[in-house]
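Good day; I would like, with your permission, to put a structural problem before you. I would ask you to consider whether the tokens describe a fold that such a sequence might reasonably adopt. The full record is reproduced below for your convenience:
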Amino acid sequence: MKILLIASGEFAIPTLELVAGHRPTIDLKIFSQPNQAKGRGRKNAPTPAKEAALNLGLDVETPKDINAPESHRLIEEFAPDYLILVDYGAKLSPATIALPKKAAINLHPSLLPAYRGPAPMPWALINGEPMTGVTTQLIGEKIDCGNILLQEPSFIFDHETLPQLSRRLALLGAPLVWRTISEWEAGKLEPHAQDERLASLAPKFKKEDGLINWQAPAESLFNRIRGLNPWPGTYTFHRGKRVKIIESRPVQASHILAPGAILVDNDKLLVGCGQAGILSIERLQIAGKPVRSASEFLRGYKARENDFFGIKTDERA
């Protein structure tokens, strides 16, 4: 059996490692996105999936356009039985989807048709969903709309952040991909259409989506902070400086604070939210400084009367 794995991000690594572990029973070929400039030095670096594949001794193709004729020639020379798409970052054309002999399969981190699109895990966290999961589906012309093959549900744990959820679902998805291939080979799978009445979208975010509106309820802000960690991150302003809010939790408090108002309660950094809610800031990062715990921040913090988060320019200084 020949498998073409098209993958780029960290979410794809458990699937890559599991499928590669079945060599030499299978032939495996990897396609990934080209190297990209990363970090402050903007040095070219391979995608996480490419780096993992090279560490496993696999050859990796990095075409600029997966749908270009030269990419198709490379795929046709390999003649895969299955094309597996995981966290690649580009849409496949109908011509590319048609290249494998048996099936073109995508692993998606939601229980489709819920949260179609590029950001299903952040939106599940932001919306406070109690459940999510992973889905294998046939790749169709419309993104995430193809027939469903298998699904594996999972609870979302309290206080789970995006990196934690992503890692869990990646580990959950890898065996689901292999089970999908095995059951397809055995003729046991019956693809079924998605129920369009249950469909929802998970669009990508912009940097400005991370700006905190302290008028929102504490629970809503808590979910947004964990859902947008690490990118684009959630941020506010304090005394004219940009502050990233890394971790928080809603708390019950006897105080009533205006939205954005800061209260120091022993070693706790409390902020007022909408609907008389209170958010305890656990970790934060002032622009140009390392990430600090609330207690570390408070050691150098000099409280002022009517001090607020959310004011971009400090007119009272």
Notes: The mean pLDDT is 94. The chain has two domains: 2-198, 207-299. The domain at 2-198 is CATH 3.40.50.170 (Rossmann fold). Residues 210 and 234 are 4 Å apart (CA to CA).
